[in-house]
Specification:
Strand 6 and strand 7 form a beta hairpin. The chain is built from eleven helices and 15 strands. Strands 1, 2, 3, 4, 5, 8, 9, 10, 11, 12, 13, 14 and 15 form a 13-stranded mixed sheet that branches. It folds into two domains: 164 residues, Gcn5-related N-acetyltransferase (GNAT) (Aminopeptidase); 194 residues, 3-Layer(aba) Sandwich (Aminopeptidase). The mean pLDDT is 94. It is α+β, with helices and mostly antiparallel strands and 379 residues long. It is globular and about 70 Å long.
């Protein structure tokens, strides 16, 4: 019997030891990939913990390992998010496996059956675990490491998923800015033009940190409400996000646009944690935490990511709505250059969000990675 024909066991993850195997499996699968960045195991344990991740307050999640001859050969999750717009939809995520069609078939079948038993009629993914976290499967842009909170997959994974009856639902795009390039004259002219005196741009006030995060999230939930697949951040998720982001936040890398003192737009730039942890092999103990702290707070990173940005929908089509994104990006860009940041990723952007794509490209951003969300009807 060949390895490919040996029986595959699908094992629900129930114990801490099984969860550690689930977390660490991609490290082995990507051992030959110079662009893969092993995640911090402690952080992944928290992310997948119902006690510590508030996503579980409104979602049901199941994790599985695929095993063959006592060896882990794949993993997957299935999720039901009760805040998702379509109650007929279920999600899969965290898929990783050896390049073997039978393993992918077994994993996806397990996720589909679990969702079908719970009344779901369509499956979308991958979401790791939420659409507000890592979204989509990398299908283009394998030749560079992923940024903070972005996925990285083997090139064979997309075709293996498609072979199981999955089709494209939506692509999302990551744009890369080279900080050595000046802004185009057209963009600089727009940014420098006179603007209404009631329109101001400022940075984050750490003295009112929790209040600031609540205000930013309110703008985010409003700005993104019309987007495909949108799920609002809950109060518990906002609190969790505020706590987890605070060690990474530089207040001058956050830009807030206000109209008559009310926040109407924002952008957050975070140092690229993946750059700082790339050689830590997923471990912080016993001494890697010292390296990480020095790299983030003293040396700084040369790359960064804008994971959150938005302008209130009521301003769309008007002067403020057109100008605000440029003001936000310009304010963050000035600080990023001072901090020694050489490249910034703005992600992710829906493929059909043409206004935002035009803004990115008018500022000199280049689309350099594409992630795909797949869908399949469950019979």
């Amino acid at each position: 019997m060949t390895a490919e024909s040996a029986a595959i066991d699908i094992v629900p993850v129930r114990t801490r030891a099984e969860m550690d195997r689930f977390i660490k499996l991609p490290m082995r699968l990507h051992a030959d990939d110079p662009h893969y960045v092993p995640p911090l195991v402690l952080e992944r344990r928290e992310a997948f913990s119902p006690r510590k991740n508030p996503f579980f307050h409104h979602a049901e999640v199941q994790f599985w390992l695929a095993c063959r001859d006592g060896r882990d050969v794949g993993r997957i999750s299935a999720q039901i998010d009760r805040l998702a717009r379509n109650p007929a939809d279920g999600h899969f995520g965290l898929i990783a496996a050896e390049d073997d069609s039978s393993v992918f078939a077994a994993l996806l079948s397990a996720a589909e059956q679990w969702l079908r038993q719970r009344g779901r009629r369509r499956v979308l993914g991958p979401f790791n675990l939420s659409i507000n976290e890592e979204t989509g499967l990398l299908i283009d842009g394998f030749g560079s490491p992923p940024m903070l909170l972005m996925g990285h997959d083997k090139a064979y994974v997309g075709p293996r998923v498609e072979a199981q009856g999955y089709a494209k639902a939506k692509d999302v795009i990551a744009y890369l800015y080279d900080m050595d390039h000046d802004l185009p004259l057209s963009a600089r002219t727009l940014i420098d033009r006179p603007r209404p005196p009631e329109l101001t741009v400022r940075h984050l006030d750490l003295r009112r940190y929790n209040e600031e995060i609540v205000a930013i999230t309110s703008v985010f939930n409003d700005a993104w409400a019309g987007n495909w697949g949108f799920v609002p951040l809950t109060d518990a998720e906002v609190s969790h996000m505020a706590k987890s982001m605070k060690p990474l936040l530089d207040p001058e890398l956050v830009a807030i646009v206000e109209m008559r003192g009310e926040p109407v737009g924002f952008g957050i730039t975070l140092p690229n944690l993946n750059e700082a942890i790339a050689d830590l092999n997923g471990r912080l103990l016993p001494f890697n935490w010292i390296k990480l702290l020095w790299r983030l707070k003293v040396r700084g990173t040369r790359t960064a990511r804008v994971p959150l940005m938005g302008v209130k929908r009521s301003l769309a089509g008007g002067l403020v709505g057109s100008l605000a994104p440029f003001l936000i990006i310009d304010a963050m860009r000035k600080t990023a250059k001072k901090r020694g940041i050489r490249q910034v990723e703005l992600s992710w952007i829906l493929e059909d969000n043409l206004p935002m794509r035009r803004i990115n490209e008018s500022l000199g951003g280049l689309p350099y990675k594409t992630y795909r969300v797949y869908e399949k009807t469950l019979a």
